[in-house]
Amino acid sequence: MASRVSALAKPRGVWWEGLGRDERLWVWLTVIWGIAMFLMIAFVWPLIGEEQNRLHSYRVDPVTFASQAEAFIQQYQIGQRDGVPVVAPPPGGDVYLDARAFAWQPVVQLKRGETYRFLISSRDVQHGFSLVMPPHSINVQVLPGYVAVLELTPEETGEFPLICNEYCGLGHHLMIGRIIVTE
Amino acid sequence: MATAAMMRRCEITGLSVDRSAERLIMLNAVTAVVYLTIGGVLALLITLTRWQAVHLLAAKLFYEFLSTHGVVMLIFWILFFEVAGLIFASTVLLSTRMVIPWLSWVAYVMMLGGSVIATVLMLSGQATVMFTSYPPLRAETPWYYAAVLVFAVGAILAVVHFFVNIVAARLRGDVGSLPLFTFALMGAAIIALWSLLSGALALFPVFLWTLGVIPEVDPGIYRLLYWGLGHGAQQVNLAAMVGVWYGLASLTTGARPVNEGLSRIAIVLYVLFINMGAMHHLLVDPGLGTWVKNVNASYFMYAAVMGSLIHAFSIPASMELALRERGYRRGLFEWLRRAPWGEPGFAALVVSMILFGLLGGISGVIIGGPQVNMISHNTLLVPAHFHMTVVAGTTSAFMGIAYYLVPLIFQRQLLFRRLAQWQPYVYGFGMLILGLGMGLAGHWGVPRRHWDITFSTAPVLGVNLQELRPEIAVFLAMMGIGGIIAVIGGAMFVAVAVATVFVGHRTPRPAVGRIVPEAFSPYPAIAGGSGEPAAAAAHRTFEVPGTLVISVVFLILFIFLYGFSWFELSRVPWKIG
Question: Is residue B349 part of a domain?
């Protein structure tokens, strides 16, 4: 059996030895636990969970995205809120969400139980899509030049604040938007 | 003859200490503590601003100080201390010479120059781009990026010198197998090398872009490269901290690693797999596919988690064995009751291991899952996680070992010993409260890096998150109060360190207790004298039953919290994806 030395001293001779009973037991437990966690993420939750991280994305020129978002707002605008356009896109349709320092545009009005495809991008710096939805929030990173495609199905009516959770400049804490869900 | 004058023999440990190495260790360590002090003052101001009821600083100052706090603590304090550790582990601990002292001087000057310029630019509001400096957000001056790059190159040189020292010692025949402490730091150094390279690859184009040489930087590719540094640097801290844990166990209880091979394999697991941790920051990014995220962030990553779980077992196991060998054999836990709780290094080790493991490690695994990450990305839970790993874990451990290495290297009597005895507990308690408050607030949806979650100055669509969920006010108060206590704990460390270094009684034999000298000897005399396992005959039953019980309880808690996180995800009222 190899001799043991302090962690601060140079081990002498051959120190390689087999695992003791205690160590073997613990190593097996950690291996099993690691595999269990991997299975949960890769296979179990994708089968049973309703909240999936299946984010799609594509590249876009920020200017193009901005004009697409403007066109979307013009097409479906139903009013204004604090000077911010409110849009009601058709159920099952696309929702352009345009981030800029320091605003989310537009305010989106959705119908409960319908699925929408959110197309989220920024026209300037990086932002953070953070939809406050007690008990938690749903968060997606927003990069200029990339569109994050997120499928959302609102299951509750009400107003949900949309805040920015990526520092985007000295007015970061002014950036706020809204998603409204109606019956 | 020239060599003899350059070396001194330590009267306590018997190690030969290269004078030039010693000088550079002192310089790097003192610089580190200066940055720790700056970062600590900023920490207090920031936490008192995010504690919404106090809301101390104005927005601009808050963001400036937050940027500075992040870089000063995560990069400058820790890297200067680690460079001191790298020099120590590759020269003093091996009783060998420093091969190219001027290289370490160049490294130090570059690190100092880069860090001072970067700090001044951040504090003066010319580089309020946070720790991450994500483009296309840009600092007002390109010289910020240049300063950080100069620092990074300096750090790379210091790491290279570490390898040069070890290879030279090996060639000279000064060392066969490395001490486990040095081995762990070698793991840290390998991770540091590619982390720093990855960071330089990310930042250099940004520097060129701010100069106007190239038209743009792809923000997605920047993030991928940047997090090689951003998370990689924390893995450096992890590996270095684990080395310090083993060191502290040896210094305070005379522990000898139960199985050298297993402990070293666990460190190799870090080197091979922990870089996947970088992917944790990109789990809700556009531009990367689901499987890239799943495989990197879970499958490979868990190999590194396994490394940590092995250390979490083998370090207490080695202490249990050492204390049992000294006669504390009754029951499962007599060894734990009779452990040296009043020894600052032991206190720091326990605080560091508990907070790192229970809060830092488990929270990291949980929010590092691609699905659960959707409800935690960029919330306060993220800084809660890394304050438990890098602050409560790494910083506590570094402070703990400083109580032994500062007297030995500076040859000064440790001052304010009672303060040092209490310091780890005060610091740990503060960090615990801060971590819980921050983590819960994040879990309740509070974003990180945000000046005002009441949106009191928002021109349109304002909403008050604290009114929406009143519990948040309590959590943020916990963060603030915990922060104050932790800053007091940090100040206690700085007081002890500064007093010892500058006014401690000069002596070649500072009082460090009975066990410390043994810890540096390959022929420990404490138990049995031979260094052979005293309990070889008892190997038929469990050798370390107490540690097994603690570890299994820890694993059960881990499984419970992990399961709970999925339950929490399932409570999100909307269907996603």
Answer: no
